[in-house]
Amino acid sequence: MNTPELSVIIPVYNEEEGLATLFSRLYPALDQLNISYEIIFINDGSRDRSPAILREQFQARPDVTRVILFNGNFGQHMAIMAGFEQSKGKRVVTLDADLQNPPEEIGKLLAKMDEGYDYIGSIRNQRQDSRWRHVASKAMNSLRERITRIKMTDQGCMLRAYDRNIIDAINSCKEVNTFIPALAYTFAKNPAEVVVEHEERAEGESKYSLYSLIRLNFDLMTGFSLVPLQLFSFFGIIISILSAFFVVFLVIRRLIIGPEAEGVFTLFAITFLLMGIILFGIGLLGEYVGRVYQQVRHRPRYLVEAILEKTE
Ligand code: UDP
Ligand code: MG
């Protein structure tokens, strides 16, 4: 196969129950588009039967051109990165394996691309996730909107389409911690968004724990903005100025009224508040420094155990 029109990239992590339904909907949906396509599955270190099922698909389907098998769990975004590196298509679409993004919507994204856009994001119509995820996600979306330059209505939806230029740009990035939709957005010349349907997870459970969601959002904030750090400097400056006034005030009081030792608890309250803020600041700094450290170690971002690849 030469250059296909479309590469579809699907990260898979412990999705054995849902894969069969995914296949049964994905292939017909892609066939309907009437373009040449390839499918790349990345097994992100699943401990269930997913890799075996993917191997079978690789044997059975000529359009499953590559199956990348990771040596461990390196995360959805690293899996997609690996998929991008292996993809050949003129356009690339990423899709979740759990069928929350219906594959039937791919055509809508491509149609939008035909209008001249190079990056199509998506907005989930009536998102089918738990309530707390809705609320948390809304909060993170608006926070991100404020502190980064990335404009996305719905950062969490991974059903997205990218032009080859953007994929090449992303492939030249060597960052360890990243957030692909945001990274792509920084390279996009002409991005657009479409509304897509969203379904409940077909089988299995979300692979994101609260902890991994928090980590991911830190990756997004620290990876695309220095504003959190700058806010701290700004806050430090304000507090310094206020305390300077306060010192002058206390000196004058000392001269006029003499020594006093009242208000110890007020002092405690202020001290603890400031200590909390300082600890938070150090933690935040640590988030940046830790990521710098991970980056400078130059360890491989992910380990590939095997790539099943169709040779012509
Ligand atoms: N995934 C992955 N590695 C991980 C976590 C998730 O490859 O460490 C894949 C997962 O198999 C699915 C997609 O990423 O195809 C989205 O995961 P999930 O549906 O659990 O996330 P949610 O929809 O809850 O945000
Ligand atoms: Mg999901």
TrEMBL record:
The chain crosses the membrane at residues 231-252, 264-285. One of its GO terms (biological process) is lipopolysaccharide biosynthetic process. SUPFAM superfamilies: Nucleotide-diphospho-sugar transferases (SSF53448). The keyword 4Fe-4S does not apply. GO terms for molecular function: undecaprenyl-phosphate 4-deoxy-4-formamido-L-arabinose transferase activity. One of its GO terms (cellular component) is plasma membrane. Pfam families: Glycos_transf_2. Residues 7-168 form the Glycosyltransferase 2-like domain. This is Undecaprenyl-phosphate 4-deoxy-4-formamido-L-arabinose transferase. It comes from Sulfurirhabdus autotrophica.
